[in-house]
């Protein structure tokens, strides 16, 4: 697709360091107002907590609209908020090739049915306590090294290897209807979103990427803040203020880098016999309890997915998600890597082998989960080695992880639903054949 949109950035010189919740709210309300401008596709604000990120507005516009031509509109919006400063266009720009899905997401995010409620929500968001970043952002080299062997595994925390994220209600509804190739496209789309976020150095640009990609939160800190607020008003204000409160793009990058680099490794090195399951939890707290690996090895898991708020009364819905990835093992390794009977409270993924995953047995495994209400289920997936033959499959059962793996073993199941207490649990896979078995598990 051709480049069709650009994003400009404007300094709003209302102060340095922590400018206070009132000033942060004023700048955010300016961005909200600018979303009503017919030349603006998407406006957001950032900064105002520390000197690392000063107050800033950003505008996404169509190619052909001059950024400087919108200075008057910004000044009017600032004046309406009784902010008497001159916005300054920065020497920075981002270019995008947004498609219909991203543009629809922007339109939904910018829509404000009740301006008074939206302003009240911004006031609450602006009062969020700043969450200081508690460590340096890992470099690509650091993260790659962490997958190389046990010696370096201790250098990063398990939460950096396996973090959850959440999607908005529109994207959740799209996933509910996804079948076949659409499942693969959704998973690849999320992968591309994280890859773009990994490269980003500006919080407003990160907000645009997240909103365009249908993301609401990334990581546990953002989710905790999201859960604590009572109102949100608009997706735009919500995402941008959450990013600012968790430490901006620098802090967010510590989580995003691990997710994105892990995906990068998948597409580069793990091109055969890979089971990848996106678990989407729209109901109660869900915990990964254990797995049984008939063939292959565990690569990435998420230890828990919190209770969703899919249709809250006063804020956009957010549905927690996580990626679970298993690959075929090196020919020098083998056998199950976890006993099905073991029910660990906090299972820690073993370190993948630094050797390339060669071998002839593919990947076949079962993953067991438990709701906070006590009910249990297990998902089984099988991706046979393509040089041997076989059919990809995904199954779901109320039995054990070992049983799920055995049920999935070369049976070709593509779509299955069960009832687990009050919850409907559905699994689907994208295609019968292929070296990556893209799976989806929906909890409703």
Write the layout of secondary structure elements.
Layout: E1 5-11, H1 21-34, E2 42-46, E3 56-62, H2 71-80, E4 88-96, H3 100-110, H4 115-126, H5 140-146, H6 150-153, H7 158-161, E5 165-168, H8 169-176, H9 181-199, H10 203-212, E6 215-218, H11 220-228, H12 235-245, H13 248-269, E7 274-281, E8 286-295, E9 297-300, E10 304-305, E11 318-327, E12 363-371, E13 376-383, E14 393-397, H14 401-408, E15 415-420, E16 423-429, E17 436-443
Parallel strand pairs: 7-17
Antiparallel strand pairs: 1-3, 1-4, 2-3, 5-6, 5-11, 7-11, 8-10, 8-12, 9-11, 12-13, 13-14, 15-16, 16-17
Helix pairs in contact: 1-2, 1-4, 9-13, 10-12
Summed over residues and divided by their number, the pLDDT gives a mean of 82
Largest β-sheet summary: 8 strands, mixed
How much of the sequence lies in strands comes to 25-35%
Supply Rg.
Answer: 23 Å
Morphology? elongated
What low-confidence regions span 5 or more consecutive residues with pLDDT below 50? 143-160, 330-360
How many helices? 14
Rounded to the nearest angstrom, the distance between the terminal CA atoms is 35 Å
- Class per helix and strand makeup: alpha+beta
Number of strands: 17
Helix percentage = 25-40%
């Amino acid at each position: 697709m051709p480049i069709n949109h650009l994003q400009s950035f404007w300094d709003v010189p209302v102060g340095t360091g922590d400018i206070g919740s009132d000033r942060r709210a004023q700048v955010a309300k300016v961005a909200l107002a600018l979303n009503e401008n017919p030349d603006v596709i998407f406006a957001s604000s950032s900064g105002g907590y520390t000197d690392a990120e000063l107050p800033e507005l950003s505008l996404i516009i169509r190619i052909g609209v001059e950024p400087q031509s919108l200075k008057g509109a910004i000044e009017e919006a600032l004046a309406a908020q009784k902010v008497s400063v001159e916005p300054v266009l920065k020497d920075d720009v981002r270019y995008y090739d947004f498609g219909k899905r991203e543009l629809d997401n922007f339109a939904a995010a910018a829509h404000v049915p009740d301006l008074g409620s939206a302003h009240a929500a911004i006031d609450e968001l602006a009062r969020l306590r700043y969450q200081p970043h508690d460590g340096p952002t890992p470099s690509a080299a650091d993260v790659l090294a962490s997958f190389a062997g046990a010696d370096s595994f201790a250098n990063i925390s398990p939460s950096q290897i396996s973090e959850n994220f959440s999607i908005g209600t529109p994207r959740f509804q799209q996933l509910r209807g996804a079948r076949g190739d659409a499942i693969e496209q959704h998973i690849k789309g999320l992968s591309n979103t994280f890859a773009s976020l990994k490269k980003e150095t500006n919080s407003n640009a990160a907000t645009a990427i997240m909103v365009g990609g249908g993301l609401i939160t990334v990581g546990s800190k953002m989710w905790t803040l999201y859960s604590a607020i009572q109102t949100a008003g608009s997706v735009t204000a919500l995402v941008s203020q959450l990013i600012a409160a968790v430490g901006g793009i620098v802090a967010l990058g510590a989580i995003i880098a691990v997710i994105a680099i892990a995906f990068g490794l998948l597409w580069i090195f793990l091109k055969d016999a890979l089971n990848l399951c996106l678990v989407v939890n729209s109901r109660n707290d869900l915990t990964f309890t254990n797995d049984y690996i008939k063939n292959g090895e565990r690569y990435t898991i998420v230890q828990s997915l919190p209770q969703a708020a899919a249709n809250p009364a006063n804020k956009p819905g957010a549905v927690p998600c996580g990626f679970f990835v298993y690959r075929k093992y090196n020919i020098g390794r083998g056998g199950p890597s976890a006993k099905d009977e073991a029910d660990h409270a906090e299972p820690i993924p073993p370190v993948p082998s630094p050797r390339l995953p060669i071998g002839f047995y593919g990947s076949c495994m079962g993953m067991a989960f438990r709701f906070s209400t006590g009910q249990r289920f297990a998902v089984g997936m099988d991706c046979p080695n393509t040089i041997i033959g076989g059919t990809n499959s995904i199954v779901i059962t109320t039995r054990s992880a070992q049983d799920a793996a055995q049920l999935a073993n070369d049976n070709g199941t593509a779509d299955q639903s069960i009832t687990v207490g009050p919850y409907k649990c559905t699994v689907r896979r994208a295609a019968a054949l292929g070296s990556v078995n893209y799976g989806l598990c929906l909890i409703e």
